[in-house]
Amino acid sequence: MTQTPASAQEHALLRLFRWIGGRSLTSLRRFGRFMGNVLYLSGRGPARVTRINIGLCFPELTDAQQRALTRASLQETAITGLEVAWAWTQPVETVLGQIREVDGDVTPDENGLIVLAPHLGNWEVLGLWLGQTQAQMASLYAPPNQPWLEPFMRQARERSGATLHPTDRRGVLQLSRCLKAGGTVGILPDQEPDFGSGEFAPFFGIPANTMTLAVKLAQKTGARVLAVAALRCPGDDGFRIIARSVDESIYAPDLSQALRAMNRAVEALVREAPAQYQWEYKRFKRRPDNRLPHVYDNRRRPHG
Length: 304
Known about the structure:
The chain has 304 residues and is of the alpha/beta class.
């Protein structure tokens, strides 16, 4: 049974979401840059985390370059948030009509295809594109905190042909079945897993608690693995899909070696458009040694 918003406030939020989705990409991107500038000037919350992450991951940049990348990242993140409304509410043909280029071959082999889709560019656009272009497409999803929003989100993401499964054992089993049938599976590889369900591996040279699902599926099925993103084109003009191969050591029986290969692939993809990565996420929140300082401690000053 479809759930509906339970309050006037929820109705208003849904109407606002639809209104935002009805704006043009050009206007959304312009407003997103304004919002990003406001966040940057605040120096708090997302701006602070972004500054710390960029300082950690790009120590070779000057202070001025790190600050410029921080501002650009906040702008791009604000744009992504606005574009989610656009991608969920516009017709699939309209969204995919904004894809200007596909750089790379995104086709499964006989063992299927695992798409590593980090929080780079617009992953909602990428999901719709994969749903339409792949013969069979499956991915996991976590229900939103607002139960009435879940049917809207699922319908928006599944309408181009993809199938969503919950982030539990049954969902993982469905991904495995999809690969065995020669289908495509999409996985977000750069979110911190729950405590005890990940392993630490370097990401931009920093130990990061890394999810093991993609690597274990690759080892189990022998599926082809690609790192893929939908990047915004310059000048407010649509998107380009980029697909990059992953080192063969992702199939290594040594889990640490395989995770390093996955993180290297994600890092290389991010380096193609670093401003479009979600640096606002606390990727290094958990440390491999509790004696190490918390990188996001409020007493810690951002680099530079």
